[in-house]
Specification:
Layout lengths: L2 H9 L4 E6 L5 H9 L4 E7 L3 H10 L4 E3 L2 H7 L4 E4 L6 H10 L3 E5 L6 H14 L3 E4 L6 H11 L6 E10 L14 H4 L10 H18 L3 E9 L8 E2 L2 E2 L5 E8 L4 E7 L7 E9 L3 E7 L2 E7 L10 E2 L9 H9 L9 H19 L5 E2 L1
Parallel strand pairs: 1-2, 1-4, 2-3, 4-5, 5-6, 7-12
Antiparallel strand pairs: 7-13, 8-11, 8-17, 9-10, 11-12, 13-14, 14-15, 15-16
Helix pairs in contact: 5-6, 6-11, 7-9
Amino acid sequence: MSNSAVKSSQSAQTLIRVLILGTGAMAAQHAQAFQGMDGVELVAGIDQNPKQLNAFCDTYKIAQRFDSVEAALAWGKFDAVSNVTPDAAHYATTLPCLAAGKHVLCEKPLALNYAHAAEMAAAAKSAGVVNMVNLTYRKSPALQKAAEMVVAGQIGKVRHFKASYLQSWLCQPAWGDWATEHQWLWRLSEAHGSKGVLGDIGVHILDYATLIAGSDVASVSCRLKTFDKAPDNQIGPYRLDANDSCMMTIELQNGATGVLHASRFATGHLNDLRLRIHGDKGALTVETTEHGASLQACLSEDLVSTQWHDISLPTRSAPVFTRFIAAIRGQGPQNPDFARGAALQNVLDRAFDSNAAGGRFQTV
């Protein structure tokens, strides 16, 4: 369905009132997306930083402003919450909203540990509300087409894969100066709620690889690395102790094995996800980068010659914000939901356990 058709359909629907929870840098993307939809209104914002809250709400013409979830819920005149708080706040801020019967879209990772993520998934199910996690790269047409081809058996039984999510913002200033900007520094500090590169972007490549491979993780081995980045690894209040690079070996429930690598020190890669996946009848190379998405295949007829061919890609699917509203209206599935977010967090927890055990495999 075209964007104009979606808007036309939505305009005939009941108004959905959205509250933005957390008004930091990423909240702008959420606000702009929701303001671009017919039948959706931004009605409130929440933040403990009054200057940041007022600037955000002034920019997006949001009337109601609160310094706590409790105050917003006491007011109550909203239907859905877009949770853009820092990772460590997802659990505490989402549960009251679910208990109040509000639909919730939450940034990834769903929580800082599996116990909290599982509790959030159970609470959402019990409340009977729409619950979704913003796994951004689900909208990649290369991911979508590759997953379809694997499900259709076009590469046969999946045997092994190699996946990576490579960033370089600790090596270059394309996104700003990480050493002086809060939006980056908190991501490098465990005390400020960061789970490092594993929790921040490892969750994306884990979802990317397992969705395409068509199987959940059975066991994982992981090694993490934190590099020296400043004198005594301290900048102001920020202790720079979160992991900067992770390497995982994974066994899937379908018997396939694979390796995943995520890093913020990958010079030459601004923000690139790549997967090479092999089956007994063919292979795929899947890429989602700042320059676009691509998919190549070497299928059964080309295995001897090892010829690779470009695969035509579908139009990029609707972003998660549009799909969230559609799910509230009963016009589409809530996918990925909190249950998927919790399952991914379970793997991440076992990866941390493995690293603490010197890389020993952990059952998921």
